[in-house]
């Protein structure tokens, strides 16, 4: 008696804070939507996008469509995406703390995502265009399904690289995974494209960006700049061929896609072979992990009181801090954490780091909080709970303790902030030119230098400031000149030396600068086979050496190198560009470089206007000439999809704060109407829905009256229910835990007939209400985990009706996750209890019921329990290339039991024990080159009170 109205919500990432006032800039190419305080940067970005418009279509003939571009300025998860239903581009404008090359973040992002618009616009021809007439914006997905994701991301990465002097794909870190993989086993050169796309649970496979770029670049080298544009347009015309891209390549270029892949990767293998033959000039301090752990990453190593401290992840275990005893070749977990948002540091006996923390309500507002761990006592603290801080750096000046951090400003740049260590109160803030971002911070005690990595319009370089005893930051000055050489991982030893990773030599290597020398000579300390990263100055008793991580095919290992003058591999001289050793030159697009296109807030003449969200709540973006009962597919035990003649409309605002659908047609031989709408622009989410037809109204007859001969009337009206609900989803995640709280309240009207024995007739309609409270707390899972190994959830419900003929129903539900017998095995325990006050009519809903069993009685008292054991069976890593790739097979064995006192005639109850047992077998697959896996699950259950149950389920990750 609690049917749910199906929600037709398209791709949705979240909502921004409700108090933001939005403005827009309209041009022939785009509609830029941004917060009103972001005007200077939005105007500058508009001018930049106008500048790249002529070159961004390179190789394509179709004009890009005009899309809304939404700038999310308070989300620290730096990213961007182009979505086609409803069509829009979303840019998370805050620059990442690390993993960035020497061009401003907003420029990188705008070029990459603008190229996606070009790609998807080129699909709108032939069959895909017809599909867009039939299905609206969702019709474009027909073409997107047959264009491999490796091309979309590889081509966008190519655009990024072509618009830069030394861009993303030229960075040594971009190719390091493929270089190490080929050096370890040359047979990977012939690996099928599906494995590059889907990856593997066995070992690390570089993804669609790396593979895609190399394929796109090779295609242009072999066949010219128009090759991919023509191929994608053909795929859009003929998606019915399933693999049109492969067909076009063979028909017009005489080349199988697999041959192109082998040739492209073979060229790379030969080009990289001499560089992979170089030996590391330093020892590693950790050994590769057991192969069963999969790819292992040690990062940001530090000398600690009892060995080396490092952040560690592997495929079997989530991220944590570990202490490594290199002498005993042993390690122990120090602290389970969230992935740090910037590198950790140690000051005395305290470990400091920053991590992302979500806003409890708004998905598009996040924080980066400062955390500390006392290594002696284990005491933990958190600072700046509602702030954004990176690169926490403790320092002492004149006996006074401070904490320096990097904080994103409100216009897309960064500030350097100084806090009093006692209460984290801000004492000073150093501001920089707009769009200048900071990507590292280090304190050197000997020279009283607070050094940082600055990235601006002129490139990337090292700068410095100093701190007064009064807690003031002095004006900044340059240490090195700006260039396109990427530097990262800045640290200091406190004795006048800075250490960092630089790509100046053509690979990521460890460099040092002596701040005490007038020349500030820069020296390279390492020569690596693949790359050296994240240096850390040595601790007490370890002077003269530096810790860092080095890349291998098995992961990142901890290594050390000497720092004296005799350890110098090279004396570095400034150059605008690094050496380009590892890249086969790609044909030039002959476009202007990002560095030659300044972002100025006077660079656009387009009008700035207010953007009204409320006027666009019901933005109809897709439709279909059918009526489909999605509710039956999602919620009924038969899992039947009923389709009939009709019409369906889908709407969703560009901001994601309003979405819904409406469907009308003929189903089950009756007229059928379903509509729903959700408004999520407030902390309280409001949902309204209606369903009419598709069956007849329900009928309720008390047991005694049914025995006395009362029967269902012959003439029944169409089924109707109207539902309204409010919910407050709250996210309290932090550290190693995901924590969610959601109170909700739902009221539903049914037009059911209720027999009244006093009146000897049927009364029409009743209203049901239900209040729920949900809480869950799960620990972060590993890559290979199917369900969390640790966690729990609780739910409490109270349901009743605005009709005294129904009783009240109260229920409690609990779920717990525990580790299984082996790695990545999990035990799920569930239990529930329910009671219902005695009345003429009762509710049949239950919080937990044996799978596959009949569930149609109302219970006065009810209890149930279930146990599941979930484990991976195998990782096949194979299939039919281009069609289906089988990544993992897993099993779940279960047993369910319930006991209830069910209402019976004469006010009595009847006890029933019901149980079932069975299992699920699930196949995790990637179909037609998709990067998003789908899980097809087959359920077999043997219930005690019904026939053998067989079910099929489908779930997809996006």
Fold and architecture overview:
The protein is of the alpha+beta class and about 950 residues long. Helix content is about 15%, strand content about 45%. The protein has a 19-stranded mixed β-sheet that branches. Helix 1 crosses helix 2, helix 6 (about 170-185) crosses helix 11 and helix 8 (about 210-225) packs across helix 11. The chain is globular and about 105 Å long. The relative contact order is 0.10.
Descriptors:
seven-stranded mixed beta sheet, 19-stranded mixed beta sheet, alpha+beta, 958 residues, disordered N terminus
Strand content: 35-45%
Query: Over all CA atoms, what is the radius of gyration?
Result: 31 Å
Count of DSSP-assigned helices:
13
What structural class results from the helix and strand content? alpha+beta
Q: Please, what is the oligomeric state?
A: single chain
Q: Estimate the helix proportion, in percent.
A: 10-25%
Shape: globular
Average pLDDT: 91
The residue ranges in which pLDDT falls below 50 over 5 or more consecutive positions are: 1-9, 633-640
Question: What's the total count of β strands?
Answer: 49
Largest sheet: 19 strands, mixed
Distance between the termini: 32 Å
Give the arrangement of secondary structure elements.
Blueprint: E1 22-26, E2 30-35, H1 39-56, E3 67-72, E4 79-84, E5 87-92, H2 105-122, H3 126-135, H4 141-144, H5 149-162, H6 172-184, H7 193-198, H8 208-223, H9 227-237, H10 244-253, H11 257-276, E6 296-304, E7 307-314, E8 317-325, E9 330-336, E10 340-347, E11 350-358, E12 366-374, E13 380-383, E14 390-397, E15 400-408, E16 414-420, E17 426-430, E18 437-444, E19 449-456, E20 459-465, E21 477-478, E22 487-492, E23 497-502, E24 509-514, E25 522-524, E26 532-537, E27 545-552, E28 555-562, E29 570-572, E30 608-610, E31 620-628, H12 630-635, E32 643-652, E33 658-667, E34 670-679, E35 685-696, E36 699-700, H13 703-707, E37 718-727, E38 730-731, E39 737-756, E40 761-779, E41 791-801, E42 809-819, E43 826-836, E44 859-874, E45 878-880, E46 884-903, E47 909-927, E48 934-943, E49 949-956
Parallel strand pairs: 2-3, 3-5, 6-28, 36-39
Antiparallel strand pairs: 1-2, 1-30, 4-5, 6-7, 7-8, 8-9, 10-11, 11-12, 12-13, 14-15, 15-16, 16-17, 18-19, 19-20, 20-21, 22-23, 23-24, 24-25, 25-29, 26-27, 27-28, 31-32, 32-33, 33-34, 34-35, 35-37, 37-39, 38-39, 39-40, 40-41, 41-42, 42-43, 43-44, 44-46, 45-46, 46-47, 47-48, 48-49
């Amino acid at each position: 008696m609690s049917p749910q109205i199906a929600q037709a919500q398209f791709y949705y990432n979240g909502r921004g804070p409700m108090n933001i006032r939005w403005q827009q800039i309209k041009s022939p190419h785009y509609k830029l939507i941004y917060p009103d305080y972001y005007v200077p940067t939005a105007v500058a970005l508009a001018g930049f996008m106008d500048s790249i418009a002529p070159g961004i279509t390179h190789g394509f003939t179709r004009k890009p469509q005009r899309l809304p571009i939404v700038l999310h300025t308070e989300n620290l998860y730096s990213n961007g995406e182009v979505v086609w239903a409803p069509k829009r581009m979303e840019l998370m404008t805050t620059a990442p703390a690390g993993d960035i090359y020497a061009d401003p973040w907003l420029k990188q992002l705008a070029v990459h995502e603008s190229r996606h618009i070009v790609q998807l616009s080129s699909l709108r021809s032939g069959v895909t265009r017809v599909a867009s007439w039939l299905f609206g914006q969702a019709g474009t997905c027909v073409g997107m399904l047959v264009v491999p994701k490796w091309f979309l991301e590889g081509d966008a990465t190519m655009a990024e690289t072509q618009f830069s002097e030394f861009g993303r794909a030229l960075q040594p870190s971009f190719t390091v995974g493929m270089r190490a993989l080929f050096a370890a086993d040359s047979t990977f050169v012939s690996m099928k494209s599906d494995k590059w796309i889907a990856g593997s649970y066995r070992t690390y496979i570089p993804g669609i960006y790396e593979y895609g770029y190399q394929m796109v670049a090779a295609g242009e080298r072999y066949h010219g700049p128009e090759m991919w544009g023509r191929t994608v347009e053909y795929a859009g015309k003929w998606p019915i061929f399933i693999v049109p891209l492969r067909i076009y390549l063979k028909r017009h270029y005489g080349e199988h896609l697999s041959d192109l892949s082998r040739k492209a990767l073979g060229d790379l293998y030969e080009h990289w072979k001499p560089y992979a033959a170089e030996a590391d000039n330093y020892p590693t301090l950790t050994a590769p992990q057991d192969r069963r752990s999969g790819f292992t990453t040690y990062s940001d190593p530090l000398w600690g009181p009892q060995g080396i401290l490092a952040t560690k992840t592997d495929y079997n275990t989530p991220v944590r801090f570990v202490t490594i005893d290199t002498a005993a070749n042993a390690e122990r977990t120090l602290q389970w954490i969230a992935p740090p948002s910037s590198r950790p540091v140690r000051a005395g006996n305290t470990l400091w780091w920053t991590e992302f923390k979500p806003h409890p309500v708004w998905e598009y507002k996040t924080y980066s909080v400062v955390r500390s761990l006392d290594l002696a006592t284990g005491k933990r603290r958190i600072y700046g709970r509602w702030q954004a801080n990176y690169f926490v750096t403790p320092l002492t000046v004149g006996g006074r303790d401070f904490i320096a951090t990097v904080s994103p400003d409100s216009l897309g740049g960064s500030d350097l902030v100084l806090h009093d260590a006692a209460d984290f109160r801000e004492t000073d803030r150093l501001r920089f030119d707009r769009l200048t971002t900071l990507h590292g911070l280090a304190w050197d005690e000997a020279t009283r230098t607070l050094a940082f990595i600055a990235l601006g319009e002129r490139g990337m370089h090292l700068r410095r400031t100093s701190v007064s005893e009064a807690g003031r930051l002095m004006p900044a000055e340059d240490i090195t000149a700006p260039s396109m050489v990427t530097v990262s991982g800045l640290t200091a030893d406190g004795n006048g030396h800075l250490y960092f990773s630089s790509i100046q030599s053509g690979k990521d290597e460890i460099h040092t600068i002596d701040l005490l020398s007038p020349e500030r000579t820069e020296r390279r300390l390492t020569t690596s086979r693949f790359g050296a990263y994240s240096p850390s100055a040595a601790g007490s008793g370890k002077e003269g050496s530096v810790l860092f991580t080095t890349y291998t095919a098995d992961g990142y290992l901890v290594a050390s190198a000497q720092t004296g003058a005799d350890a110098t591999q090279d004396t570095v001289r400034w150059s605008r560009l690094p050496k380009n050793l590892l890249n086969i030159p790609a044909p030039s697009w002959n476009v202007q470089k990002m560095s030659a296109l300044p972002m100025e807030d006077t660079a656009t003449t387009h009008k700035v206007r207010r953007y009204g969200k409320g006027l666009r709540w019901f933005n109809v973006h897709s439709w279909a000439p059918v009526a489909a009962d999605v509710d039956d597919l999602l919620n009924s035990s038969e899992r039947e999809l009923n389709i009939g003649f009709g019409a369906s409309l889908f709407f969703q605002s560009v901001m994601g704060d309003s979405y819904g659908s409406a469907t009308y047609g003929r189903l089950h031989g009756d007229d059928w109407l379903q509509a729903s709408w959700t408004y999520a622009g407030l902390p309280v989410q409001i949902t309204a829905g209606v369903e009419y037809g598709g069956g007849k109204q329900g009928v309720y007859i008390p047991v005694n009256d049914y025995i006395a001969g009362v029967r269902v009337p012959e003439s029944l009206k169409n089924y109707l229910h109207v539902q309204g609900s409010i919910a407050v989803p709250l996210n309290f995640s932090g550290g190693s835990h995901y924590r969610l709280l959601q109170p909700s309240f739902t009221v539903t009207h049914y037009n059911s007939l209720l027999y009244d024995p006093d009146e000897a007739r049927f009364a029409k309609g009743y209203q049901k209400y239900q209040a729920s409270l949900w809480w869950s707390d799960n620990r972060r899972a590993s890559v290979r985990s199917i369900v969390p190994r640790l966690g729990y959830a609780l739910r409490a419900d109270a349901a009743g009706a605005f009709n005294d003929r129904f009783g009240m129903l109260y229920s409690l539900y609990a779920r717990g996750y525990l580790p299984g017998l082996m790695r990545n095995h999990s035990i799920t325990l569930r239990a529930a209890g329910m009671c219902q006050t005695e009345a003429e009519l009762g509710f049949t809903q239950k919080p937990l019921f044996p799978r596959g069993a009949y569930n149609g009685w109302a219970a006065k008292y009810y209890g149930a329990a279930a146990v599941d054991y979930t484990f991976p069976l195998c990782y096949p890593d194979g299939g039919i290339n281009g069609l289906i790739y089988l990544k993992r097979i897993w099993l779940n064995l279960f047993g369910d039991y319930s006991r209830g006192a069910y209402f019976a005639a004469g006010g009595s109850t009847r006890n029933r024990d019901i149980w079932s047992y069975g299992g699920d077998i699930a196949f995790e697959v990637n179909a037609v080159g998709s990067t998003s896996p789908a899980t097809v699950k087959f359920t077999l259950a043997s219930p005690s009170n019904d026939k053998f149950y067989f079910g099929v389920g489908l779930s997809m990750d996006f």
